[in-house]
Amino acid sequence: MDALLIVDFQYDFTPGGTLAVEEGDQIAEPIQRLAPQFDIVVATRDWHPRDHASFESQGGPWPVHCVAGSRGAQLHHALNEVDIDFVVDVGLERDDEGYSGFENSNLAEGLHERGVGRIAVCGLATDYCVRASAIDACHQGFEVVVVEDAIRPVEVEPGDGQRAIDLMIKAGATVATSEQLLTTVRR
């Protein structure tokens, strides 16, 4: 069985958010087309305490983002049209890195219990949370497909997005467009 994993499609990572990914909202359309074709749809959320170690105010590299319960931490409204089976919150503890949906969460167990063998990964941002989640999914024994038209990078350094894709492929993932993926979804 296949699952769609939507990584961190939250307000703070889309235009107008505190850590906006350029064109981050553009992933909505392919996700909305893909989701109904999957029996299992899972979303991850950054869900940080106010003093999370990744925040600049705490000596980290990022502006304050996705504080638990804030509007910025909520899933993007485009997902209101998507039937999500469960949501996994990550980065809950001050020192959790929180990049991977599998870090200190029940994501792997939830997918294995449902008989998932292959995961299509999409979301934000390619070079951080998508990369970490896809690589961890490979390490957890899942077949992983990264949906290239349903991801966007932060690009702190030019080329970070492509380097992340290369690392995901090196870990065992494949890359496909949403159209290519639609022809191969296993229920």
- Total number of β-strand segments? 6
Q: Any guess at the CATH architecture?
A: 3-Layer(aba) Sandwich
Kindly name the structural category.
alpha/beta
Share of helical residues: 10-25%
Oligomeric form of this entry? single chain
Overall morphology: globular
- Biggest sheet strand line-up: 3-2-1-4-5-6
Given as residue ranges, the uncertain stretches (5+ residues, pLDDT < 50) are: none
The overall pLDDT, averaged over residues, is: 96
**CATH level 4 superfamily:** Isochorismatase-like
CATH class descriptor name? Alpha Beta
CATH level-3 fold name: Rossmann fold
Number of helices: 5
Q: What is the string of SSEs from the N terminus onward?
A: EHEEHEHEHEH
Termini Cα gap: 5 Å
**Overall number of structural domains:** 1
Question: What tags apply to this protein structure?
Answer:
187 residues; alpha/beta; 6-stranded parallel sheet; 24% helix
Report on the structure:
- The protein is an alpha/beta fold and 187 residues long.
- The protein has a single domain, classed as 3-Layer(aba) Sandwich (Rossmann fold).
- The chain has 5 helices and 6 strands.
- Strands 3-2-1-4-5-6 form a 6-stranded parallel beta sheet, with helices on both faces.
- Strand 4, helix 3 and strand 5 form a beta-alpha-beta unit.
